[in-house]
Specification:
With 205 residues, the chain is of the alpha+beta class. It contains six helices and six strands. α2 packs antiparallel against α6. The longest helix has 42 residues. The radius of gyration is 21 Å and the shape is globular.
Length: 205
C-alpha cells in the first residue's frame, strides 16, 4: 500500500494556495468595483418612488450597472412611441455629452433589434454582427468592440433599452453581466412607471 508523503502534500497545497492567491489578487480590483456598484444599486433602489428626478435615478442606475459589469461606456435609450426611434436619454462614458439626445432610426442597430424583439443580446465582436449600426461610432468618433444590451419592458410594452459597451478588461461580457443588466432594466422600468404615474396624477389634478 502506497503511503502519502505529508511534505509533498504540503508543498502541493502551498502551490495551490499561491496560485489561488495570485488569481484573487488579479481579480481584486474588479471585485471591489463590483461591490461598489452593487452598493450603489442598493442605494438607488431606496430612492425609486413617486416625485423623484427620473433622469437622475436612471443615470445613477446606469452608473452603478456599468461599475458592476466593468464596462467603460453605456447608455439608456428610451423609445419615442410616436416615431418608434430610440433616443439616448442617459449616457455614460467617452461620448456622453455629444451622444445625449441622439436618435436611432427605427429598428436600426443592435439596440433597435433588442427593442423590436424584446430580447437581450451579448455581442462579443460588434463588427462581425450584421445588425451593428456604425453611424454612431463614425459620427461621434467612438469605437465599439463588445456590447451587452437588454430591453426595458412593461408587460408587452417596450420602454427602451440599456446598453453596456466595451468591457474594461480584455474579456467580453459574461452571462452574469447579462443577468445583472436584466435586473437593472427591471429597476429602470419600475422608476419609469412611477414617474409616469406621478405625471398622470398631476395632470388629472
Amino acid at each position: 500500500m502506497e503511503t502519502q508523503d505529508p511534505v509533498r502534500n504540503l508543498q502541493l497545497e502551498v502551490g495551490r494556495l499561491r496560485d489561488e492567491n495570485r488569481t484573487l489578487k488579479d481579480e481584486l480590483p474588479s471585485l471591489r468595483g463590483a461591490v461598489r456598484g452593487l452598493d450603489g444599486l442598493h442605494d438607488v433602489i431606496q430612492r425609486i418612488r413617486p416625485g423623484v428626478d427620473i433622469l437622475e435615478i436612471l443615470d445613477d442606475l446606469l452608473a452603478s450597472a456599468l461599475t458592476v459589469v466593468g464596462a467603460t461606456d453605456g447608455s439608456l435609450l428610451l423609445l419615442d412611441e410616436e416615431t418608434n426611434e430610440l433616443v439616448f436619454a442617459v449616457v455614460r462614458g467617452q461620448a456622453a455629452e455629444r451622444l445625449r439626445g441622439y436618435r436611432l432610426p427605427p429598428g436600426r442597430g443592435i439596440a433597435g433589434w433588442v427593442a423590436a424583439h424584446r430580447q437581450a443580446e451579448v455581442v462579443h465582436d460588434v463588427h462581425a454582427d450584421p445588425r451593428f449600426f456604425p453611424d454612431v461610432d463614425e459620427t461621434f468618433g467612438f469605437e465599439t468592440h463588445t456590447l451587452a444590451c437588454v430591453p426595458l419592458l412593461e408587460g408587452n410594452r417596450v420602454l427602451g433599452v440599456i446598453e453596456a459597451v466595451n468591457k474594461s478588461s480584455a474579456l467580453s461580457f459574461l452571462p452574469q453581466d447579462h443577468d445583472l443588466l436584466l435586473v437593472v432594466a427591471m429597476l429602470a422600468s419600475v422608476a419609469l412607471r412611477r414617474a409616469e404615474a406621478t405625471t398622470d396624477n398631476h395632470a388629472a389634478a
